[in-house]
């Protein structure tokens, strides 16, 4: 695969930091990692700036993780605390698996969006702040006053404040600096973090590849101007050394990884309905799916999306439907049909805050129970969760295989944090075994039945339309081995048993992931999904402090692999870490009799009769390692108190 | 719907299918005198006359009396959930143009719980035939008013009479963008029911056939006035529409020559209250079909998937210095 032509600059750029010329490397302060935030009004391009910075750093070999800072409205008021839009980028010398803690450096396009980040507690005490200073001399006296007030507060609070003339500088290059400041800032940040100028230019050309040449040129000019300005005017110089890249990697967000996973899984039909934060996966897929002869169908609603996918799967083309919480609720009857009629189906739920419309743009792990038990009746289905960007890609391939092997519904849970977070991972090497076999159109043996359940596995070989002798009427009603409607108690039980057996058969093939840390100790943290990176980072910090803490991360939530109980029993205390609600035991109304636990804790408690505690937050934010460390310390202290 | 090339080839090698080849081993469990039986018979006759291979024929339904039809056909059947027959059928068709897809649905299934899908199915205009068994009542759940129940009709949920004017499925369908085939039949004129289904099957696109159907249990006298008085039936004929047999023509003398491309007249006929129009109200074979528009230029192959994946990976690739495909910025 050798890209050619100028438009491929970004793909082909490979430069190590040692080769980087003229960036004052010698005087740079060397850091292990830094967290950078760029915030602006919506529409000023701070998100693009952050994503580009992350991509440049990743291509330099740095570990990165990005998180979007998203206002809930499309056009929030200008210069408002609620309207802060942007990106957080964690750049490190090592691999990064999560958002990290507070920001070390913030670039703010106005003082109100800065205030939003300060109030949210997202900025480290004493952090560096680069603030657009155009508001200091703004014609409106109220705005001048508001700016002065925040500026003075920030200074008084001990932050390292730089007032930066973004507007004035950008006016030298573009008539409307609102549409160009972001690239100027990107240039500044490349100077501050000693990132290679040519790599940055290549990234900007790539970002604007679909635009006309003069727009590309203008943005490259702004980038270079920002760099030059920062080199002359700022005394900030950092270097975050990156180890040389040793294997090909790709950098993308979780939704892009899901979309590519769908392509790689051999599924040919994706039926969806727009819903935040899942839709961008379908956007990405829409751009490429037709190139491989496949189709993204935007259905009239979530129910239609689910049942359309079921129809395609029934006809032999295993299909996926991509959604988020409210959509999952709407699909539940369709999912039940697929369970009852044993039609393979992959459902991807990019979780957001709930219930109801909840927090559409924000993260929560609130759908685990809904994914497992959301429909009516006994409806066994597979539920798995992706724990990293790379896992988003491979989970889809695994899900399609399980769905078609067992004729089951497989739900993949990701969330808003994974959806927009970027992370590099080893470039997947295509394997034709990922794909689905051609649709079986051979004649069905005369004596075969559409539900010839195998006693050992519960699996029946389904008949696909077009197969001679296979004619039968599939139904969502209780049915016998011939797919005839049957209300007979024995026949109903036979169906229930075999649908359940499939889950047990799959369970026997699962292997538990290794414990992170020692195999025994004082405290075991158990997690699932996107929190893996934060939990493991917290465990590393705790272990460095001398605590005997380990963690276990579950990929399959239904069924769960054997051996979890044995691991739990080797630890004094067990606590799940989840990004969802649980009742705080400190609340005066909450007692052991009425406390509602986090989802996974509830499941572990009921299955293994072990006193599993839980810690979690449902604030719409990814969990941070430092917060997990605190929770674990408190749990350890509590355990010590119990012993004494 | 169009017969595909492969079906033509199949017909050349296959011994002729007979009616019994389309009858399943399950005897219909509809009430005596139910109009659904006439529709099932017409369907089986159509399959026989068109020599549709049973394995290439799929009948999709939702929930209700009408939706039991797939169980009684020897074909592939999909008896799914209430209101969702159409999206299931669309999913079946999107990558399987070789399958003949029929949707059998009732007035509750299609016009109430599944109404959103009905409107959008018209707009998608995919190659399939929809049979709306409209008996103006919920039968399987034992007599509740449906959206097409006449105003004032007493039922278990409307003991003092249905409150609202009924919804007219014909005018609604004719009003949706991309409508391409709208016809009305009645269960008590089987010749015309069959002929209309046949023309629906041969239409390329989404063929909407409303079939007024008698429910002997819950709407016993609903259509008596029309059954007893053939002059209240308006039969639509045209060189491009129905051509009546002499024996039908002798009984049903109230005939109108109607060009199926005449939308204003189609709407006027659809809105008739005293008379029941029977025939093809509207047909436009030039409306594009979603399944063909989305067919894709090439089939999916492993080579293609690998190529596209690598193209995408290249766009976001990071290479070790020594193996980079090319240096940047030259």
Automatic annotation (TrEMBL), chain A:
Domain Pyruvate/ketoisovalerate oxidoreductase catalytic as annotated: residue spans: 43-227
Record-linked InterPro entries: 2-oxoacid/accept_OxRdtase_asu, Pyruvate:ferred/Flavod_OxRd, Pyrv/ketoisovalerate_OxRed_cat, Pyrv_Fd/Flavodoxin_OxRdtase_N, Pyrv_flavodox_OxRed_cen, THDP-binding, Transketo_C/PFOR_II
Region: Disordered, residue numbers: 1-28
Residues in Pyruvate flavodoxin/ferredoxin oxidoreductase pyrimidine binding domain copies: 262-454
Organism: Tropicimonas isoalkanivorans
Top-level lineage group: Bacteria
Protein name: 2-oxoglutarate ferredoxin oxidoreductase subunit alpha
Oxidoreductase found in the keyword field: yes
Biological process terms in GO annotation: response to oxidative stress
Pfam families per UniProt: POR, POR_N
CDD domains linked to this entry: TPP_PYR_PFOR_IOR-alpha_like
Biased composition (Basic and acidic residues): 8-20
Keyword check for Phosphoprotein: no
NCBIfam families, alphabetized: OAFO_sf
TrEMBL record, chain B:
GO biological process: one example: cellular respiration
Domain Pyruvate ferredoxin oxidoreductase beta subunit C-terminal: 250-293
Stretches assigned to the Thiamine pyrophosphate enzyme TPP-binding domain: 63-210
Keywords: Oxidoreductase
KW Oxidoreductase (keyword) present: yes
Highest taxon of the lineage: Bacteria
Family annotation (InterPro entries): 2-oxoacid:Fd_oxidoreductase (IPR051457), PFO_beta_C (IPR032686), THDP-binding (IPR029061), TPP_enzyme_TPP-bd (IPR011766)
GO molecular function: oxidoreductase activity, acting on the aldehyde or oxo group of donors, iron-sulfur protein as acceptor; thiamine pyrophosphate binding
PANTHER family: 2-OXOGLUTARATE OXIDOREDUCTASE SUBUNIT KORB, 2-OXOGLUTARATE OXIDOREDUCTASE SUBUNIT KORB-RELATED
Protein name: 2-oxoglutarate ferredoxin oxidoreductase subunit beta
Species of the source: Tropicimonas isoalkanivorans
